[in-house]
Every structure is written in structure tokens, then in C-alpha cells.
Amino acid sequence: MEQELRELRREVAELRCDVGYWRSRHADAVRCNEQLAEELRQSQGQVRVLQDKLFGRKSEKPTRTDRSNDLFDPFEPPVPLRKRGAQPGHAGHGRRDYSHLPVEEKFV
Predict the structure, then answer these.
(1) What does the alpha-carbon distance between residue 106 and residue 104 come to, in Å, rounded to a whole number?
(2) pTM for the predicted model, two decimal places
């Protein structure tokens, strides 16, 4: 019985040492995990900033309403903006002239 008791006390002391070791290892892992999570947040922020620079609004492309480069004369009437392509009322090119070709009549 005394032998058993000593053996159990030795085993308890060993297990207590193991508990301290594993607690410290767990604390190290939690610290490492927090550090990696912070690095991940920083990296995601950098990616977001770089994507905004790459795919965001381009400063070289002004909007249609941007008139910052135009000189404005308040006494000059505004020029109406026209749509692209053929405008209504435009005469166009007309028909081609084939009068220079020989006439060939066919009777059916």
C-alpha cells in the first residue's frame, strides 16, 4: 500500500509538470495565432488598397460633366451636345450616279 501511494504521488507530480508544460505551449499557440490574425488583417488591408488603386476610378478619365479644363465665357451661348453618328435632317450621300454605264434592255 505504501508503495502504491508513493507511485501515485510520483505520477501526480509528473502530470502536474505536464500540465504546466502544455499550458505554456497553449499560451504560446494563442499568442502566435493572434499575431498571425493581425498580420492577415494588415495584408488584407494592403490588398484592398492596391486593388482600389488598380481597379478604382482613374483620375485621367474626366466625367462628361467635368469642365475643369474648359475656359468658360459667360456671354457665349452654350454649344448643344449632339449624339454620335448621323444626325436627324442630315442629307446623307444620296444615290450613286450610274449614267456613265451602258444601258442594256431585256424583254421577257
Answers:
(1) 7
(2) 0.43
Taking only the tens place, the pLDDT of each residue in 65-102 is 655 556 666 777 766 777 888 888 888 888 899 999 99
Assigned C-alpha cell, 93: 450621300
Q: Which residues contact 62 (CB under 8 A, 6 or more apart)?
A: 68, 69
Residue spans per domain, the chain: 1-27
Task: Retrieve residue 59's grid coordinates.
Answer: 483620375
